[in-house]
């Protein structure tokens, strides 16, 4: 599957969820909401899982930031019910004021 990406503004960063796995290991995850500004299908709820990813989400991002999120779609079955999540694995800030650099293509100069 090709990379899935969404650009948008962080609208909410939800509370950290913690628990213990069947194997007895502690875990944590955090969800955050992105709005890409489209008329339809404009809100996405992403999860980050693990201590380091949760720490980095809170350290480098805040509500109102414009970001690009690279993610995987994950689906799990439990007792005949299916649960789908969007697992973020890259979050980059987007500079909304940046203008594309020109790229030379032969004699023509074309923006990205």
Explain how this protein is built:
The chain is mainly beta and 112 residues long. It has a single domain, classed as OB fold (Dihydrolipoamide Acetyltransferase, E2P), CATH 2.40.50. It has one helix at 51-60; strands at residues 4-13, 17-20, 26-35, 43-49, 66-78, 81-93, 102-105, 108-111. The strands form two sheets. Strands 1-3-4-6-5 form a five-stranded mixed β-barrel. A hairpin with a 7-residue loop joins strand 3 (26-35) and strand 4 (43-49). The chain is globular.
Question: What's the structural blueprint in terms of helices and strands?
Answer:
Elements: E1 4-13, E2 17-20, E3 26-35, E4 43-49, H1 51-60, E5 66-78, E6 81-93, E7 102-105, E8 108-111
Parallel strand pairs: 4-6
Antiparallel strand pairs: 1-3, 1-5, 2-3, 3-4, 5-6, 7-8
Inertia-based shape: globular
Strand share of the residues? over 45%
User: What helical percentage do the residues reach?
Assistant: under 10%
Q: How does the helix and strand content classify structurally?
A: mainly beta
By oligomeric state, this entry counts as single chain
Per DSSP E runs of 2 or more residues, the count of β-strands stands at 8
The SSE order reads EEEEHEEEE
Strand arrangement in the largest pleated sheet: 1-3-4-6-5
CATH-defined superfamily: Nucleic acid-binding proteins
Name the CATH architecture: Beta Barrel
Rg is 18 Å
What's the rounded overall pLDDT mean?
87
Distance between the termini: 24 Å
